[in-house]
Amino acid sequence: MSRLIRYNNCNKNGLLNIYKTGVLSTSTTTKSQLFINSNNNNSNSNIIEVHKSRYCTLSTSTKPASEDKPNLIGTISNIFDKVKKKSFIIDNYFDQQPIHTYNHIETPLSIKLNNNVVEPLKILDPLNILGKKKSNELFKIVESDLSQVTRNILDTLSVGAGASSDYAPYLSKKTSPVLVSMSKYYFELKGKRIRPTIVLLLSKALSANVQKTQIKLAEVVEMIHTASLVHDDVIDEASTRRDVLSINQSYSNKLAILCGDFLLARASLILSTIRNSDVTECMSLALAELVEGEFMQAKSSGVSSFDHYLKKTYLKTGSLITNSCRSAAILSGADQNIVNISTEFGKNLGLAFQIIDDLLDYTGSAEQCGKAVSVDLNLGLATAPVLFATQEFPQLEDLIKRKFSKEGDVEEAKRLVAQSQGIEKTRNLAIEYVNLAIESLLKLPQSDSRDLLIALSHTVVTRTK
């Protein structure tokens, strides 16, 4: 018998952790065999053939029939039970659906190749529109919907939570004026609004009109993102945001934390009114992973691993865009294939967006970005530019391990990054992910909205703020 296994975990040496004593041999070739003992004797064993880096087949290998024991079928079933208990997903190849988690982020070629000579990657431009679409053109087709999203958010924050619910035992008509003022603070400023724009453009690309539930989804996404900014500014002790004083500076850290919590609570209330359990699960997952990503960043202890960096990047930023795209596709009534394509698009675009953000922390100015730069190094964080620079200047590893804590560490790291290919490699890394996002979009039916999403993907890696 032979079944396909899609596995979620492997250690840094490529070994599959299937059973504590079950991995007897492996190789680094594209197809290798791992043996799992079903019990303490060696009468029956299973062979897993590993293909590339994600899929493998489980087949039964037995001794000659004369040596077989009568409970062979039971033994095989027991093996499958053990594999399942170790969180392995066993299914037929053609039945499987992609899982939108970090476990399925492929390691880009730019990380695998440790080259000091870097050729700039070309941005995929299938429509010959690179640089030809201005930012206001990207928003024009959904401008009225974006304005509606902003109005709805401001209206929601102005009334008591009970006014939005059919189940509130007590209708609180008003919210504290101070809390209203704080929670509206960033929404009344001119932000990128890229997340609701992605949701609305994708919604229009998948159906003729944007539905009310998709408008609500865009509101939820923007509120979750804004809440994360409020909390970020407290954690990072930031003083500015979008060219103005941050909420924690204008009020206090305690009030800012409560403001962020309030935004998340109100976003959850709007999410519940969409009345779609799949969407609720997706967006709840995004919120949980966002917090996990923030926690990874806060607890990082001088880690210089790209695997750690990409995981944190996905959790902190990529997951929200991934799950919002998946949710938009679900609400459009699209089939499973289109939902998965939309998910892949969101995942890769989200990763590219954050990688460029990390790049701008080295190359941008405070005036351009509307916030302080060189923040990551001052916070002790090792992002893509310095990780790539470490390939040329190994002494950076000591600075990373002590989180740039000694006097002169930040300046030395910036100097070495500038002398290295770190900036160019980081830009190439972002372009790799954007190209993957564009490839996903090309699998969708052609429409003006889809083409604008391609143009928006271009701006993600060409932006300067």
UniProtKB/TrEMBL annotation:
Specify one Pfam family.
Answer: polyprenyl_synt
The protein's UniProt keywords, in alphabetical order, are: Isoprene biosynthesis, Magnesium, Metal-binding, Transferase
Q: Which InterPro entries match?
A: Isoprenoid_synthase_dom_sf, Polyprenyl_synt, Polyprenyl_synt_CS
Which GO MF term does the entry hold, naming one?
Answer: metal ion binding
Q: Name a single GO cellular component.
A: polyprenyl diphosphate synthase complex
The GO annotation for biological process reads: isoprenoid biosynthetic process; ubiquinone biosynthetic process
Query: Which cofactor does the UniProt annotation name?
Result: Mg(2+)
Residue ranges of coiled coil: none
Q: Tell me the PROSITE patterns matching this sequence.
A: POLYPRENYL_SYNTHASE_2 (PS00444)
UniProt similarity note: Belongs to the FPP/GGPP synthase family.
- Protein name, UniProt field: Trans-prenyltransferase
